[in-house]
């Protein structure tokens, strides 16, 4: 049975990846989920699989070398999928040091521990061991509005403390690949959306605010463009890179779903009105009049767009979920999980797990 060590598996993308992997492989794999449970880590995301015999959760900080090394020593880890990161740009602007610690130091610790566990006396590595570092398109900077795409060869040009910390972590992984021939890959993805996304992010924020008649904040003129990737498509891409990717290579995972932020908000409002029953009181609250333009974010990149040509040509992956389908699936999930949203927005999910782990 192959053992996966997933960092940040209680977060949005990490938890969706774990669900995807169990749907695909069921009892053929074992997953160890390591998460420190910051505000973005929520074990409710994994409640339906927490009792599986082939799933283990360990509360630990990826910057804690002793804790991470212990996991490698006590388990024969075959794959590392490294999601754990501080990821919200606005938070990075307010407190960049936290991002440097988690994203840069944390990645260094993960690399060192995996290297120590997998390296043979002759400097080569045990067969079948692979480390996948999950990164972002934001490391590439900003594109012109009228064309061009991010490729794996695009020079890095980060503009926020968040993207700078992720760029730094990418360079660490590249350095280990070049210096030690460490068995790793890097994936750079576009903006993800889907179930379990923390509601400070654009799409769940707009869905939740619209359903409660709250203002829908839009930075600047609302014309910043992002490429949107449905989270299940991303999970599939990560798995395919680990199974079929050339070691040492970077693969961009993009959604072919470019949209201006204001377009996203209008699509969400229109889709909510299509999906809400006629007798649902929330229909009266959902309105484009809630759209409120606010001061633009500092260092706000104008456009991101990934060209996933390499991953399609080499591995056969391409996005399967176009935005209008994905947003309907996402809204339907939030309709079915209102209690989850209430627990997250109230902070109750944190109190529950703080009590659970305070004596451990």
TrEMBL record:
GO terms for molecular function: dTDP-glucose 4,6-dehydratase activity. InterPro entries: dTDP_Gluc_deHydtase, NAD(P)-bd_dom, NAD(P)-bd_dom_sf. Its cofactor is NAD(+). It comes from Roseburia zhanii. Keywords: Lyase, NAD. Belongs to the NAD(P)-dependent epimerase/dehydratase family. dTDP-glucose dehydratase subfamily. It catalyses: dTDP-alpha-D-glucose = dTDP-4-dehydro-6-deoxy-alpha-D-glucose + H2O. The keyword NAD applies. Residues 5-330 form the NAD(P)-binding domain. GO terms for biological process: nucleotide-sugar metabolic process. This is dTDP-glucose 4,6-dehydratase. It holds the Pfam family GDP_Man_Dehyd. It is an enzyme of class 4 (lyase). NCBIfam families: dTDP_gluc_dehyt. PANTHER family: DTDP-D-GLUCOSE 4,6-DEHYDRATASE-RELATED. Its EC number is 4.2.1.46. Gene3D superfamilies: NAD(P)-binding Rossmann-like Domain, UDP-galactose 4-epimerase, domain 1.
